[in-house]
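Teaching assistant's notes for section 4

Start the section by putting this record on the projector. Ask students to predict, before seeing the second block, whether DctP family TRAP transporter solute-binding subunit will look compact or extended. Collect guesses on the board.
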Amino acid sequence: MKFKALVAVLAATASFGAFAQAPIVIKFSHVVATDTPKGQAAERFKQLAEKATNGRVKVEVYPNSQLYKDKEELEALQLGAVQMLAPSLAKFGPLGVKEFEVFDLPYIFPSKQALYNVTEGPIGKGLLQKLEPKGITGLAYWDNGFKIMSANKPLHVPADFKGLKMRIQSSKVLDAQMRALGANPQVLAFSEVYQALQTGVVDGTENPPSNMYTQKMHEVQKHLTVSNHGYLGYAVIVNKKWWDGLPADIRAALQKSMAEATTYEKAIAQRDNDMAMDAIRKAGKTTIYNLTDKEQAEWRKTLLPVQKQMEERIGKDLIQAINKQNAAK
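Reveal the predicted structure now:
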């Protein structure tokens, strides 16, 4: 009996030791390809986090909507099915935090530096804090870049959009943007866009070049306009309850790893977009058009009223604060 008891104690001890050694698993889900800026930064975070915690954390990255599509991933995070996401900023409007749709406004950011002044300053931090009542903690902003327009016809002036079915993310601002151009906005999950373009379910879309190229959209879009009319960025977020429950030293190591991954992500975002444009050009299937100064002015005249139109939804004070900061720099 004593021998059996000893065996049982030793087995329990061994089991507890194995349990104590089990790493904390972070499921990091996203909807784009691994070779996009977001995809590469997610992989860099994995490397940094696992090294910084000496293997106490294991990061499992699931790209290309392997686990969840656009509309599903936020709910999965809130339920704790995944621990980390990097959704585009447009995703938080449908969640009830409409202020994030300020990032969707056409021509709200005249430059990358103007954008960073917002995301890295009090305005950006204040926006992330608004996610906490939803059970979400915001860790960082990741960059993708300014968007181009594409379709199977030339898009030189706003009148060229009339009647086109243009794919958008689920965003009231992007809906208003396309309607201002005379297009018919169509909400589609990112993973469904290529097929929708290929089959004519939609006529065109908007994306940073890296997204367009890695999803092969250039193969089914004859024309591309370098409009830089809007911005696409992401917020890296975690389940708040899970995050708050982590050991303090683990949380600190993950924060440091995220800061390093964010610096890396910003460095590669513009490079990857430039490389994607070159690759699209070399593929020879898409005509690339750069707006003239006169055409750019016409686009701005057509789209800037969307800012006024969305004041009640997003917050007049927030829009004015960003425009005021832009003017001061």
